[in-house]
Every structure is written in C-alpha cells, then in structure tokens.
Specification:
The mean pLDDT is about 90. With about 160 residues, the protein is mostly beta strands. About 0% of the residues lie in helices and about 30% in strands. The strands form two sheets. A six-stranded antiparallel barrel has the order 1-2-7-6-3-8. Strands 4-5 form a two-stranded antiparallel sheet. The chain has one helix and eight strands.
Length: about 160
C-alpha cells in the first residue's frame, strides 16, 4: 500500500448526533453545512465553483465496529453489509452528495448534508450527471422499502 488515506478536511453540519440525522442526502435538502479543506489542499478547489453539486467521501468516525450482517435503517430483516449503506463497515467510508451554495477560500458552503458534524473529509469529486447517473434494473431489498426514505432518520443503532 503506497499511500495511506488521510483526511483532507472536516465537514461541519447541523447534524450534531447520529440519532435523528437523515440517512441519505436526498432526504437532507434543507440541512446546511460547511466543508472545510485543510490549507495544504486549497489549491485543489480551483475551478470547483463551476459545478453545482459535489460528491463527498468521508470517514464514519462515530460508527460501531463492523458486522457483516446487520439490520439496516429501512428494513426489519438483516442483510449483508455490502447490500446496505449502513455506516458500520469493514472500511467505514461514506459517500454523500451536496449542493454548493458558495465557496470562500478553503470553505465550501453546502446544503443537502446527511453527514454528522465534525466528520473527517477524505475526498471531494464534482458531481456530473452524465458520469454519475445510470438507469438501473433492480435495487434489491430496498425496492419494497424505498417509500420509507423521506421520513427515515438515524436511530443511533450504528453509533459508538
């Protein structure tokens, strides 16, 4: 392993505790926050203001140790961790989409955050619909529960 993943910044959010936090960014449209990039990475923000949305990769710093089988938020049936988006994972890496409101220096002001306050930021990528959106044929066990998404919030089951 040549490079070790290390944080490039920190995400500040209105979500102070796992319990009550939206479980996906599509349910967090009104939740704002600030993505602060450490000074040594500021040059990497060049031209990001030309995009309306970003993909945030981050470390689930408050999640419990991974279980390979667990009950996800939107179902009462246990599933394999790789068939869920549960935060307790062998490599606790999260992904979220956020809308850029403005960029000032090393701070990206965003909305749509389903991320906890003070979450370590691993990477930022521009969201490009033609690259990132694909039609899919099936969504597994989620299909019967997708209608629960708007009201489903974190209940703390995966937090330390």
């Amino acid at each position: 392993m040549k490079n070790i993943i290390k944080p490039i910044g920190i995400i500040y959010s209105q979500n102070k505790t796992p319990k009550g936090t939206p479980i996906q960014s599509s349910s967090a449209k009104n939740i704002s926050g600030v993505v602060e990039v450490y000074p040594e990475f500021v040059d990497g923000l060049k031209d990001l203001d030309g995009f309306s949305h970003i993909i945030l990769l981050y470390y689930f710093h408050l999640s419990k140790e991974a279980k390979l089988i667990s009950k996800p938020f939107m179902d009462d049936v246990p599933h394999g961790v790789f068939a869920t988006r549960a935060p307790s994972r062998p490599n606790p890496i999260g992904i979220s989409y956020a809308k850029i409101e403005k960029i000032e220096g090393n701070k990206i002001f965003v909305t749509g955050l389903d991320v906890l306050n003070e979450t370590p930021l691993i990477d930022i990528k521009p969201y490009i619909p033609e690259f990132d959106h694909n039609e899919v044929e099936k969504i597994g066990w989620v299909n019967k529960n997708i209608n629960k998404l708007p009201e489903t919030k974190d209940d703390g089951r995966f937090a330390k």
